[in-house]
């Protein structure tokens, strides 16, 4: 086992590896574990793992179970909606800034254009590969914004979205398309330096993705089997019978 002293490099590696295990379900939603469990899995000493878990707790990737260890947060519709809401605040501005500053980073623009070409040629046949490519493209736009704090926050949101795709909560390849795809039009707006169009297209793209995701979740077989009466009555709302009696 590594005898790491809790240095930044080892704890950074632990953060990355634990997060990837959460994204891909190796640490499943609701799973509990201890610091020692993770140290053994990663073949690291406890010090960098302890530091990593403290970071991941602050970022919402793990939860503390008092006197017991840690737990992976559940995957919920509310959590997914919150992430889309955050993306709706951040991505349009990132796209607008990318259009303003993109000319300084032609290699990033070229990489985005290559992504669009791969998408249009049907590279989405491998959902896992398409998913990685898709989120990498969105991160490139954040990089092009030139705002390091915006890039950092958006990167976290996009990584958490990957968790929903990797667990098949959302169809991974949904939305990949032809030459008139929103991705292509968004990249063209950024390349042209059109901040207004880039902002509008990023808003449209995130809204389309949100609507597809919510529809996919609501159409899932698991939800079809839920007994709605078991959910109870929303607090503060009178039941139908009492409303009739008081009419």
From TrEMBL:
Transcription regulation is among the record's keywords: yes
InterPro entries according to UniProt: GntR_C, TF_FadR/GntR_C, Tscrpt_reg_HTH_GntR, WH-like_DNA-bd_sf, WH_DNA-bd_sf
CDD domains: WHTH_GntR (cd07377)
UniProt name for this protein: GntR family transcriptional regulator
Species assigned in the record: Streptomyces bluensis
Signal peptide coordinates: none
Gene3D superfamilies in the record: GntR ligand-binding domain-like, Winged helix-like DNA-binding domain superfamily/Winged helix DNA-binding domain
Taxonomic path: Bacteria, Bacillati, Actinomycetota, Actinomycetes, Kitasatosporales
Keywords: DNA-binding, Transcription, Transcription regulation
Domain HTH gntR-type: 8-75
